[in-house]
Amino acid sequence: MQAVAKTFAIIALLLIPPVVQGQIEPIGETPEDQAAAITALKGISSNLQKNRNGTVRFVRFSKAIVADKHLVQIRVFKQLDYLSVVTAKVTDVGLANIAQLTNLDSLILTNTQATDTTAALIGKLAKLEVLYLDNTQVTDAGLAHLSTLNELKILSLSKTQITGTGLKSLTGLVKLETLHLKECDLSDDVFETLAGIKSLKSIYLDGTQVTGRGLTQFESVKGLEQLSFNDTPFVPASLQELQAITSLKHVLLWGTDITTATLPQDLQAELRGKLSLTPTESERLSPFQKFLVGQPLEKIEQVKRNLGISDSIQIIESVAHRFSKTTDENPDFQRHVVPMLGKLGCNSRECHGSFQGQGGFSLSLFGYDFAADHLSMLNESAERVVPESPDDSLLIMKPTLRIDHEGGRRIAEDSWQLNLLHQWISSGAKCNADVQELLACQVTPKELIFSAGKLVQQLQVTAIWSNGLVEDVTALARIETLDAQIAIVDENGWVTNKAKGDTHLVVSYDRAVVAVPVMRPISDKIGDNYPDIQWRTRVDALVGGKLKRLGIIPSDVCTDQVFLRRTMLDVAGTLPSPAQITEFENDTSVTKRADLVERLLQSEAYIDWWAMKLADVTGANSQHLGSTDMNSPAAQQWQRWLRARVAQNASWKEIVAGLVLADSREPGQTYYQYTREHSFYQAPATKDEFNSPQNSMPYYWARSDLNTAENKALNFSYVFMGVRLQCAQCHKHPFDQWSKQDFDQFSQVFSRIRWGTEAESQDARTQLLTRLGVPKKLDTAALRRQMYNRVSAEGLPIPWFELYIEPPRTTEHTAILLGGKPFDLNQFDDPREVLFSWLIDDDNPFFAPAFVNRVWHHYFGVGLVNPVDDLNAGNPPSNAKLMEYLSDGFIANDFDMKWLHREILLSDTYQRSWQTNETNQHDERHFSYSRLRRLPAEVLVDAIEQSTAKSSRNETYLNDTTLRKITAHPRSLSPNSIDYALAIFGKPTRATNCDCERTVQPTLLQNLFIRNDRELLELIERKTGWLAEIAQQTGIGLHSETSAAVLIKANAQVADSSTITADELVTAAYSRTLSRRPTVEEMKNGRQYIANSDNLVEGLRGLVWALLNTQEFLTNH
Amino acid sequence: MINRTETTRRELLRIGCTSIAGLALPHSLARLIADEKSATKADSVLFLNLLGGPSHLDTLDMKPAGPAETRGSFGHIQTKIPGLIACEYLPKFAASADQYTLIRGIHHSVGDHPQAQEYISSGNRPTPALRYPSIGSVISKELPGNGELPPFVVVPRSDWHAGYLGDSYSAFKTNDYPQAGQPFEVRGISLLDGITVEKFNRRKQLLSSIDNRFKNSNNNIQLQQALRTLNSQADRMILSARTREAFDVGKEPESLRKLFASDDVGQGMLLATRLIEFGVPFVTVSHFGWDTHLDNFAGHKRLIPSLDNGLDAAVQTLRAKGLLERTLVVAMGEFGRTPTINQNAGRDHFPRANWCVMTGGGVQPGRLIGGTDAGGTAPDDSTNIVPDDIVATILHSLGIDHHKTFFTQTGRPVDLVPHGNVMQELF
How many CB atoms lie within 10 A of CB A626? Predict the structure, then answer.
């Protein structure tokens, strides 16, 4: 009773003061008053910020519930400098409370019912700099009151009843810079009035009746920078007048009759860069939209060459022969000298190729910078090269050890190498000004097959130059083995086989890189000795082709049980439930495996798991989206966008188009429309509309780690082509064809892709910022983001950044697409069109293989190429024909990801047993058995949760993915914010361009976790878990002490009320964790353990723990 | 130049002579022998990581004569190093400043926390192409220890990662600070309530009787072997009294425990000193909260005493235990803070000027190295110290060559800290 009375008293206190005090004396602004007002506004205001001394300085009201009565509270905020009231219910009555707020510099009353009565009050707020009265009932009479606001810089009167006459009141506002008059009833005669306000910089007249006649009057407004005439009857004749206003930077003319087509020729040059025009028919579609409707994108024709050596051509014999005797031939710097030094190791990383050089002498690493190398050798002061007296050259004396050389003897006296070097120096040590073009490098034989009787063979390397020269370069080419256990090679190309098995030799000369397969069968089961195996699918036949030659016999196809577990984990990241296991076993259909694959490809878990994989690959990481000002929502949008596409089975090509060709603002869309649309996608009710197929995903290009053209090139090549260019960023890699110049020129393609604000939108963005009190008031990133989140959730525009393409340059700008010829980048409005056309072209050697390889790697734990994301000429696939078949098929099936899944999953190759045989037990890369793979982090933690979940939940994992780890895209991907368990099991943080971020190697922390971590143990014990379920069913309870009544003997019936036997529990525990029945031996062990435990529940607790700790549980097999 | 091969051979001979005795040697004696046999200066590092970036101008790089708009509101006190003043909230440091060496004017240009933390932890400027390993992970690889204790412990957690070395070398995170007067449970190591050693052993036995599905198969033998080895290592840790003892700060004598404040940093530093005594070569303690964009002064006034107490108590303890000589103690954050005070009375990120305090591990005490200009806005003309140098120096003190070549996951060779220079003037 007492408590109630007290409450009343407090309410009374809160209510009375405004009424009473208002009549007697001005309301104080004591801390108590302020605190009371702040409390009263809780849940009413949408943003309230305080000064350091605790007084309120910033309030924003935007909720629909806000009414006049609430505004009473603001009277005490005497220090308020920003007030925004943008709700429709508020009238002059509420707004009367602003009368004493003389500290205000920003007042936003858009959408209220303010009339001239309020305007009269505003006129007394002398500090006002920013005033928005859009969509209010203020009229010309009200404007008269504003004529005293001498500090006013921005005034917005859009959608009001004001007329040209009323605007005359503003001519005395000497600081007014921006005037918004959108959708007011105004015509050309307004120019005369406006031209009288000499301080103006921007005028918005969108949606008015102006035609532009009389614009020359603005000549006298010296600082006028921007005019906005969107959606007006602007006439072409007025364009001429614009020329007079020389200070103009931008004129917006969207939605008018002016287009590039109607723009008079003579004005093109002068005005084109300043005008934003309605797109013409041909400009109407963005590259992404063109892609969607199937319109061709611009492309560069790549020159294709396929050269062999015709028999008639004379091959120049090797330098090793030519220079082993006296000759007057002048060696060529590029063709002979540099490759020879390279082969001798001089330009390697340990020697003169190191960044600092060695002994003051530096060469380009692995030598493809001929000019720099030549300059370095000819450095006169160093006396490396002395043409008048070659023997005094350091280049001769050092490598022959005639004088001390830290690198030791590299060249023997009387060798052809010495003769060649000597000859080059004495002939003047010249270097061709132009880099000569190597057309091809041909290696014979194309493949080396060894056998017990034939352990040594020679390779011959022939270079074909564009000037017609064909030369034997075996002695100059570097030849390296990828596996010295299998084969080694000497400097003359003689290859010696060391062991059974296969690998590649990599031959590199100039910029060519050729991989040569080397093989010696593992067993005698080759040729006629090979068993007759039915290769069921094309994949099987191609895998079998290689196995047959190697003498490897594949393992048998696995059992249904094994297939079910393996496939469910791989496709859907989910364990089968006991019921699903039984059902699958009892299914007698011959197509049951194919049916299962189809079911899985339709499951929610598949969608989530593969959306996760694609988000990993493309790098959806909020930590890299700081440049959007909306990190976390942006990353969530990215993830949902990908998920929607996987759900619709959009093709990989379509997904990539959405990322690469993304647009923020569509052609013809104004900044205001764009920001409004984008905020619309943030509002809770409408956020899913962002995922519609018409929408692209612009944030890939917004990633802050892609802020330079070089980083864009690196990431793009890596993500979409599995090509690593980081070596080429500084030097040509010895095993890769890309030179530094290739990298630099390829990067240019990306140089005009920008994230930020396009020039024409700068002013509109500034206006938006000012209206929201950003950044002047809310000048930290956190406050800004808080504001943006709230405003955009209301569906109102926030100053979104945008993806845009810089216009072509006025200076020369060439670029290349990898492997192609230089082209003029300036001829393309959007260079991404040529980039994308080239990427998805059937002839692109990387796009399809990169994805095929990732998917293959997912299913086998080993890629056709390894590392999975390192496709290059020196790193060939272990089965080139298989790679070609899958890539061609992927292309032919229009990059349908499910085609690829089916092609792999339905093959016997995928369905092999994990049990190996004599011939395949050491096979690591020919897919002759199912290799053990540790489960990926998310799948493993889900599996632990699923196998310990109560029965009703255990059943639903495949299609109810709520709270599953395979859906866990954390708000931030820093290791600190990822689940501990996910982090230690190797969930990628999407921080770098590497598939290696996802790790599946075991570590100590993992073992400690699964053995002894509280989280793991609590999962077993959880109330909604299986153990609790059994504890309840048996009546034993989770934590009962040892009690004689519940002690059980082996295989005995449990306490009278229950019929669960230890055997049943062992069977169920195996089914839940290992997806199979226990063996007789295992049953015995389990039964015994339970029998020796305090009670049935304690026994089961230990058994579940042990099963979760088995290798069999932790792996897919 | 010293011939490396020869040194190694000599070392081997000597180790051969002492090996039988060496196995059973008490910790301190083993260290003495270690002293004799190697040129290294330290066996362990205690790194107090000031996450968020402390304001250099309000701590150890004060500019009382600087312009009013940058000066801040803290007073200063004279320290034991002539010419060095410190902020008024660092009385303990001031009183023993001659035991420390202070490096100022450390500069770089990475303005975001995660990337700057990656920089100071690895000595490599971050790039999107490759993740560099933190010092702790390098040490895990180079000085792995005997498996009873993790070689790299983070109290309680941080973003320091193993980079291209791979997760096997990642930090052991305690996830919590010890709480004064309460038992400290370490994730995965301490046996939990209700699980006795007997129970654990029974389960282990059951496990070994059923974990044999692949026993007779060569299928992915590396994975099988790794899991087997790690399992027994995990068991050893879980069951090892020594491991548990190492984390049990309650075992520290009262006289030492009372040196440490009961706050997180104090208790974290207490744990760190104990772990170092037990032979963990790299321990970092995270001191969170230095990112004071809002009201820098209130924040720093709250944070600095924890730093002052924690550092002082740890150094005193290490000295009392005779470990300071062979333990390098480092305190620093990822960057300094802007001289200009923002509208919210805060200071923002400022990688142009940062400091680092070191002591122990052979570092000469009482030195002032480097400096900033009059406004604290940049290193002064004679200072050019980058995080690469600090990391190179730390590695050097442990006897690890910072130019050692490692291989990335894709087989690319990379130098550990290619652009760092060991700061010989410290030793």
Answer: 16
Instruction: From chain A, pick out residues whose CB is under 8 angstroms from the CB of B293.
Output: 780-782
Q: pLDDT above 70 covers what percent of chain B? A: 90
Report the amino acid identity of residue B361. Answer: G
Distance from CA of A383 to the nearest CA of B (A): 27
- Indicate the DSSP class of residue A1116: E
Residues A954-980 have pLDDT tens digits of: 999 999 999 999 998 877 666 667 788
H helical segments located in B240-366: 241-247, 254-257, 264-277, 296-320
Do B158 and A1013 lie within an 8 Å CB cutoff?
Answer: no
pLDDT exceeds cutoff 80 at B26: no
CA distances in angstroms from A36 to A78, A500, A622, A693, listed in the order given: 14, 86, 38, 50
Give the amino acid at A569. Answer: L
**CA of B224 vs chain A CAs: smallest distance (Å):** 7
Best A506, A979, A1003, A1079 residue to mutate vs chain B (most B CBs within 10 Å): A1003
Average confidence score pLDDT of chain A: 90
Chain A / chain B CB contacts < 8 angstroms? 182
Chain A residue numbers touching B224 (CB-CB < 8 A): 932, 1111
* DSSP conformation letters of B92-155: HHHHTGGGSEEEEEE-----SHHHHHHHHHHSS---SS-PPPPHHHHHHHHS-TTSSS-SEEEE
> Beta strand pairing status for B413-415 and B405-407?
antiparallel
Q: Which residue of B has its CA nearest to A1087?
A: B206
Report chain A residues whose CB lies below 8 A from the CB of B159.
974-976
DSSP assignment of A675-686 equals HHHHHHTTSTTT
Minimal Cα–Cα distance from A436 to chain B, Å?
29
Interface confidence (ipTM) of the complex: 0.83
Q: Read off φ and ψ for residue A695, nearest 5 degrees.
A: -100, 135
For residue A337, what are its two tokens? Answer: 């000298």
Closest CA–CA distance from residue B73 to any residue of chain A (Å): 15
Show residues of chain A in contact with B172, CB under 8 Å: 1004-1005
Distance CA A422, CA A445 (A): 33
Least Cα distance to A699 among A990, A360, A367, A1083 occurs for: A990
Asked if the model's pLDDT at residue B319 lies above 70, the reply is: yes
Instruction: Say if the Cβ atoms of B206 and A992 lie within 8 Å.
Output: no
Contact yes or no for B412 and A705 at CB 8 A? no
A276-308 burial, b if ≥16 CB within 10 A, otherwise e?
A: bbbbeeeeebbbbbbbbeeeebbebebeeeeee
Residue A377 near residue A385 (C-beta atoms within 8 A): yes
* Helical (H) or strand (E) element with A478: strand A478-481
Query: Are the CB atoms for A291 and A673 separated by under 8 Å?
Result: no
- Which residues does B358 contact at the CB level (< 8 Å), separation at least 6? B100, B101, B103, B328, B329, B330, B331, B426
Q: In the numeric block, which tokens belong to residue B28?
A: 């301190």
CB-nearest to A1014 from B192, B199, B231 is B192
Q: Is pTM beyond 0.80 here?
A: yes
